[in-house]
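Annex B. Sample input.
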Amino acid sequence: MTLDPRQVPDWQIALDAEKRMKTIETIAGELGLEKQEVLPYGHYIAKIEDRAVLRRLADRPNGKYIDVTAITPTPLGEGKSTTTIGLVQGLGLRGKKSSAAIRQPSAGPVMGMKGSAAGGGLAQCIPLEPYSLNFTGDMHAITQANNMAMVALTARMQHERNYTDEKLMALSGMPRLSIDPTQVKMTWAMDFCVQSLRNIILGIEGEGRRNDGFMMNSHFVITAASEVMSILSLATDLADLRTRLGRIVVALDRNGRPVTTEDLQVAGAMTAWLTNAIKPNLIQTLEGQPVFVHAGPFANISLGQSSIIADKTALKLSDYHVTESGFGSEIGYEKFWNIKCRRSGLAPDAVVIVATIRALKRHGGAPAPVPGRPMPDEYTKENVGLVEAGCQNLLRHIGIVQKSGVPAVVCLNAFVSDTREEIAAVRRFCDNAHARFAVSEHWAKGGEGALELADAVLDATSEQADFKPLVTPETPFAERISTIATEVYGAEGVDFTETAKRKLADLQAREDAKALDICMVKTQYSLSDNARLCGAPTGWRLSVRDVLFHGGAGLVIPVAGDMSLMPGTGSRPAYRNIDVDVETGTVTGLF
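Annex B, continued. Sample output.
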């Protein structure tokens, strides 16, 4: 008997469902994988030999490609992962061979505010505990590869300080790199939200000792925001991964020239950490459909996409493949549209925009919901006026998807507090915007509750999409940023600081400028760069205060507003609810 998500938490539903899980060999066999293409990690998890799959099925046509994005979310999240899983379950009940690709959760949110990224209710992927905590070690490997480069950099700086040119060459066999300690571009990484590590001083020497490191300012980013994570997301194979890792710019020398990981002779060791991490992971939904897990979250401060490798592999094995992009369409889908699809050569057949009455009310003027606190009355009582006002945000997101030339399907992720009149109001706005609309109860009913959504997606994918890029590689960086700001975010224009202007000019002068993509850093809580501006704000200008460069990933990264690549842990972290039953070893409290 299936547990009721209104009465028990997600982790209990997952534990109950895990008693009836298919083995990973069964999941792989139903998907069409051969035995040698499956590398089991226990009974219910595997890594996939993607290169073998893609060679074997090179001539097989791809399945239909569906991206899941959302309207501008509240801090509680609106259920993209839950909808992705629910849609695949609904397609399964319609007799379609379908799969999902989701991003591996970061320990920061799992132990912080949002919890795991496994979905929720009766639309989850399992096994929950290993997926949410250690999984197959990808996050650890990415962190290690990143920090391997920083170890090489800081050690080299110390040795160059301590030794003459002749002594240095004799000891290391490497010429002096003359690294400028004020121009270090790379950062350390950690898979937690730790605001105290955003800005640090390292290498403080012990009394009378010069071998304790090179003293300098340094920084940490969360692993999902590291360049290594972006490279893993965008790499097409191991050779491409190795090449890109070698292009990472760790610092500039004293003449302003880039110093790369290849210069430090550490790119090979970084690749060694990632030889297994580059292979996508395979688990299952509560109802036994395959779920690929690869790459990481945080589209607000990183790429935030499931990997190209996972999608390409799944599209050869499935008739319908549902992939996930982070946060709202203006950042997650925009990066899918203009970066991931350009690099992969793939084009979506439909895009699902997840909306909730809760988020629409917030954009209509209701007070912000706060995790861990009771919901304000506006969210528990009918208020059609707030919903209608908030639909201006939804309309902007529909317009973003339609601008890309792909059919939009609005999925209203249903909550028990939603009323018939509130839902009807959203349907009217979608009809007027020529977007398909479906109410989905996958959280409460699983695949059975997602049949209306599955039917809408099947209908949308029968239509011929006219997918087209918003920006082109020939366009200068500043113009590309302006286009994204005005045509996607709804800004009147862009204001660049002098620092941002100088960095963009330097990057524009590079020989490979046309191969680089714009990857914006912006708040997820507003279409603007001001998290307090809800709805569909007008009359504002995007402020770009800095520009970062990820040479290996090929990304120019404008930083808008007051954003940090290392999130913080709040006062009500999820880790306070997590424990272990010492008799059984079962982890409790994950959500």
